[in-house]
Amino acid sequence: MTQEIITLVQRTYEIVNKVNRNPKEEISQIIQKLQKGERLSLIEAGIAFANDTEELDQILFWQARKVKEEIYGKRIVLFAPLYLSNICINNCSYCSFRRENKELSRVRLSLEEAVDEAKAIREMGHTRILLVMGEEPEDKTLSYLEEIIPAIYSEVDIRRINVNIAPLTLKGYERLKKLKIGTYQLFQESYNPEVYREVHLDGPKTNFLWRLNAVERAIEAGIDDIGIGALFGLGDPLFELLGVIAHADYLKKKFGIGPHTVSVPRLKPALNSVFSNDYKISDHKFKKIVALLRIMLPYTGIILSTREPQHLRDELVELGVSQMSAASRTGPGEYRGKKGEEERQQFLLSDHRSLAEIVEVLIDKGFLPSFCTACYRKRRTGKTFMGLADRGQIKDFCTPDALFSFVEYLYEIRDKHPELYKKGNGYLLQVVKDLPNFENIGRAIEYILKGEKDVFI
What φ, ψ does residue 247 adopt, rounded to 5°? Predict the structure, then answer.
């Protein structure tokens, strides 16, 4: 039972809070372990987060960069969320989708509208999307997705559909598995049972353990790409950070696979929210959350959303983030319809840049924008992916496949964004010359620049 996780986190949280601020001996030991590349204990991770010293933070950020590059290289995966519905039977105090929010304009996309939204996202250059919707009864949700997902796959050149929906029964996850989804995401929101109870006022989401145990049911149903996370700002970020790490460790120990991704959403304003106890998390503390997750869970993809402002997102790619949304909309129908309609959105965005603008920033910073979906389709998932990531070998696949997907993106935008096309080609030359087997890679790039699509190894 995952109740073990909460007991472990509560004990660790109490121990960390008993340690005096700036405990010199403990911090010195933590710095030494970071310098040697050794994994910290849960208690040490908590102490590292709670204490801010220049030496500790510098080595923490340095080690996070090092781990990210050793595991994943320079690639940053880009995707877009597609909100299908803002209808929800829950009443969560922090969310605009909550049932009692009478000011929200409720929308559930038709099959045709959902496909049109996917087409709009693909026209930007994205090849992977994340489907998001409010909670409704299980059969209703799955029957809806059983129409939507096959239609998008068949009518749009979207190559990976990830899904973020409410917890399901074991049989429900078996149905979801048959839809050939990529990653199944489910955020616990808060790992603190008391905080969880306070912010979830009514509806099925009030059941803390049903949600906490959900990813185990998904794995047992055969879904081996799982995404977890906490909504930082609902409670003490120290508790939530420890909860995410402990949950990941538990899953890896029990099933042999940790979470494929960990998301780090930070609480943002939402229309007609009634939540008022926001734990203000400074940008510096938020950077430490990302850095510690990268160090403690080196194999996982860390996802950053457009909740964060562009200057901070540009900094966080340096500290361990490996996936980020781009040109997002958080209301159903907003890609094709009217943009930025607050009465439909789940939360307010902070980074409004286009996909092309974000791609250009990544190039300028020396990162490789990736639209790759190869691992899922080559069955490099679950234990296979974890084994490659743990040995630092996944970048041997990620780098060339990311490169091929980026070349395809450049080919597609060559007329629309000629300057970016030119800059991207210059960047490609720098990347390719440093790769082994560069002659074969170079030939593959030539094919793609002539219009070849979906090349991967």
Answer: -65, -45
Give SS3 for 408: helix
- The answer to the question of whether 94 is labelled as a binding residue is yes
Q: Is 119 annotated as a binding residue?
A: no
Looking at domain 75-286+298-353, its CATH class is alpha beta
> What integer best gives the mean pLDDT of the chain?
91
pLDDT for the residue numbered 439:
74
Report whether 164 contacts 132 (CB < 8 A): yes
Asked if residue 304 lies in contact with residue 316, where contact means CB atoms within 8 angstroms, the answer is: yes
Domain coordinates of the chain in residue numbers? Answer: 3-69, 75-286+298-353, 375-448
Which value, in Å, is the radius of gyration of the alpha carbons in the chain? 21
Annotated ligand binding at 108? The verdict is: no
* pLDDT score for 18: 81
Query: Cα-flanking dihedrals φ and ψ of residue 197, to 5°?
Result: -65, -35
Place of tokens 């538990």: 250
Is 252 annotated in a binding site? The answer is no
Give the whole-angstrom CA distance, residue 119 versus residue 102.
31
Question: pLDDT tens-digit profile of 237-255?
Answer: 999 999 999 999 999 999 9
State yes or no: 83 annotated in a binding site: no
In the numeric block, the tokens 């709009």 are attached to 120
pLDDT in tens, 23-73: 888 999 999 999 999 999 999 999 999 999 999 999 999 999 999 999 998
123 is in an annotated binding site: no
For 263-303, the pLDDT digits (tens) are 999 998 777 777 776 688 999 999 999 999 999 999 999 99
Q: Please compute, for residue 213, the number of CA atoms within 13 A of its CA located in the half-sphere on the CB side.
A: 11
- Using CA atoms, how far apart are residues 316 and 303, in angstroms rounded to an integer? 10
C-alpha 436/C-alpha 108 separation (Å) is: 49
Among all chains, which residue has been given the structure tokens 């508790």? 239
54 is in an annotated binding site: no
Helix H or strand E segment including 287: helix 283-296
Is 95 annotated to bind a ligand? Reply is yes
pLDDT-derived band at 338, boundaries 50, 70, 90: low
Helical residues (DSSP H) of 222-268, grouped into ranges? 237-255
